[in-house]
Design a protein that fits this description.
Helices cover 32% and strands 25% of the residues. With 237 residues, the protein is α+β, with helices and mostly antiparallel strands. The chain starts with 9 loop residues before the first strand and ends with a strand.
């Protein structure tokens, strides 16, 4: 059903030198990390992981995804540990039935996204999801829109001026990914809600048909975290 737009959360960019501090109710604290291969501080990041996470990292057959996992999980453990006053490896991260990592007890919510070049970490007091993509030419954007976007979004995409289609695609894609990550849903649910595709308009969830999305209002914020990249964050009410 159509829903009234929800004001977007306030995105606070935090330097990596500041790992503490709790977010406000309407706030999402975001850390932007330029990825290195291997990370210059890989040893200190590995020291933050649990034995199970060490095993998971070792199971990666390709170095780049392993470095991405170690960087993202190590940093989020450092951030949560500073907020909770515990050692990073003692932060009680568990998994939902859908495989989403969450903080046991629900006191704080976090999410991580990465490309090959950059990672974003989000921290909030309510369910949060974050996504980033490099804005680039795609071989078949129309096919991706047809496969993953809702009928209303497909029409909105067709109606965008040609010069806005690339930006509109990545604006819509990152917003949709942020929403399903905040809700703990899979990509099979991307068609079950509509977001604003026009990058010149405020990001918003326009309609939600999936029960887990319709039962909660979602605020969206979108921005360029580094030149050439689109990002979006979703915060549940």
């Amino acid at each position: 059903m159509p829903s009234a737009p929800v004001p977007g959360p306030r995105v606070v960019h935090v330097p990596l030198t500041d790992l503490g501090g709790r977010p406000g109710v309407e706030e999402v604290r975001v850390w932007v990390v330029k990825l290195e291969y291997p990370p210059a501080n890989e040893a200190s990041l590995l020291a933050c992981l649990t034995a199970e996470e060490h095993d998971r990292a070792a199971r990666y057959k390709v170095a780049r995804p392993r470095h991405q996992f170690v960087t993202g999980r190590g940093l989020i453990r450092q951030i949560l540990g500073a907020c909770l006053g515990v050692r990073p490896a003692e932060v009680p991260i568990t998994y939902t039935g859908a495989g989403k990592p969450v903080l046991d007890g629900g006191e704080l919510h976090f999410n991580v996204t990465h490309t090959d070049a950059v990672a974003l970490l989000a921290l909030a007091t309510r369910p949060v999801g974050i996504d980033t993509e490099q804005v680039r030419d795609l071989a078949n954007p129309d096919g991706l829109v047809q496969r993953f976007f809702s009928p209303a979004e497909r029409e909105a995409y067709r109606n965008l001026p040609p010069q806005l289609k690339r930006a509109g695609f990545f604006h819509g894609w990152t917003c949709k990914e942020a929403v399903i990550k905040a809700a703990g849903l899979s990509v099979t649910c991307l068609e079950s809600f509509d977001v604003e595709l026009d990058p010149a308009r405020p990001p918003a969830v326009i309609a939600a048909r999936h029960a887990e999305l319709a039962d909660r209002r979602w605020g969206l914020a979108a921005w360029e975290p580094v030149p050439g990249f689109a990002a979006a964050v979703a915060l549940g009410e």
